Amino acid sequence: MIPFSLPLIDEDVITEVNDCLTNTGWLTSGPKVVALEQELRVRYGLPAVCVNSWTSGAMLMLRWFGVGPGNEVIVPAYTYAATALCALNIGARVVMVDVQDDFTMDPVALAQAITPHTKAVIPVDLGGWPCDYDALHAVLESEEVRRRFVPTHVRQEQLGRPLLLVDAAHSIGATYGGRANVHGGDVAVFSFHSVKNVTTGEGGAVVLNLPKPFDLEEEYRFLKHFSLNGQTKSAFEKNQVGGWRYDIVAQGLKVNMPDICAAIGLAQLRKYESELLPERKRLFERYQEAFGKCDWAILPPGKDAVRESSYHLFLLRIAGYGEQERDALIRKMAKAGIGTNVHYIPMPMLTLFKELGYRIEDYPNAFRLYENEISLPIYNGLKDDQVDFVCENLISFI
Ligand SMILES: *Cc1c(COP(=O)(O)O)cnc(C)c1O
């Protein structure tokens, strides 16, 4: 049996979690969260706020930007539903746009979808492959968009255009123009869900890359409170002798990350660039090489002159296949003991979004990518002979 995905639970993770249980004795936000945020800050030179999921981190940042009912948030049709739900959950309207052949948001479609109600755009680094940040930025920075932007919140006035919030749920470690992908938007949100490249069980992090006049340290301090019910002290700080008094300074959310979760991520992140990411890349390239000789294989992008993926998913497409053939292939792979997946069923094909009036016919490229896509196992701990077994089976079935 080769499962589609498995979280990495090794000696380092066990040691770090044990430290939490037996030494610090602290379970919710405390020293491990501080250490995890510090790990991120050292990497990127930017402040990062740990939260309890990507979804809650994105909701937090939309609320921070004053987005709510009557506003529009633009997302790609081809993504996991959370990209849209974070906006729906705060009462905003979701506007979907189609994607390009590399699975990422089409900047031309974005330009056409922007209205005076648009407050935020959430492109997705799908499978770990960075979006075309320069093109997306150019759209948002255009004079036309700036002129039509109607600020209804002090932070919207400061930015003067819609917020570029990158869904980096898949893409920790990806690069764009030789720099970490977190420099691509105003805000990048990572997911540390159990199936992602780095996990805390459940969790996420918001990395702040806001342009001037924002003061990143001030916004970081505010978001630490804002992610904790707007409370000025964490339980850890209140628990220090004499530290009882606190204030509630804003109507925040309760989305802080527990230390017990941060400990798992800390052990993984410390060796992410040195061990875990190179190993993923190696597996990705092993797949690329095996399918490179097959004329029916449409390979996912991994690296070009500008971008490098975090190799989160191996999104193989089979030329000429439709939904039926692809689904049959998945069943055959399952019979052979191989777990596969599809990333993604475009949102307009899901019941909730159909009921809200979205139609897949409006997103032809999303459907074209979906109908012949099959995601293959790729994770730390997967062995070379398992990759070979996956390839041999898949090639023989086709
Ligand atoms: C996993 C995922 C999310 C949601 O992450 P959570 O941490 O589970 O909230 C959002 N967007 C994409 C593209 C994802 O794959």
Helix-strand layout with pairing:
Blueprint: H1 11-24, H2 31-44, E1 48-51, H3 54-64, E2 72-76, H4 82-88, E3 93-97, H5 107-113, E4 118-121, H6 133-141, H7 143-148, H8 154-159, E5 163-167, E6 175-176, E7 179-180, E8 187-191, E9 204-208, H9 216-226, H10 235-238, H11 259-269, H12 272-292, E10 297-298, E11 307-308, E12 314-318, H13 323-335, H14 351-355, H15 364-371, E13 373-376, H16 384-397
Parallel strand pairs: 2-3, 2-4, 4-5, 5-8
Antiparallel strand pairs: 1-9, 6-7, 6-11, 8-9, 10-12, 12-13
The chain binds pyridoxal-5'-phosphate.
Structure explained in plain terms:
The protein has 398 residues and is α/β, with parallel strands linked by helices. The chain has 16 helices and 13 strands. The chain has helices at 11-24, 31-44, 54-64, 82-88, 107-113, 133-141, 143-148, 154-159, 216-226, 235-238, 259-269, 272-292, 323-335, 351-355, 364-371, 384-397; strands at residues 48-51, 72-76, 93-97, 118-121, 163-167, 175-176, 179-180, 187-191, 204-208, 297-298, 307-308, 314-318, 373-376. A hairpin with a 2-residue loop joins strand 6 (175-176) and strand 7. The two termini are 20 Å apart. The model has no long low-confidence stretch (mean pLDDT 97). Residues 53-55, 79-80, 82-83, 124, 167, 169-170, 191, 193, 204 line the site of pyridoxal-5'-phosphate (PLP).
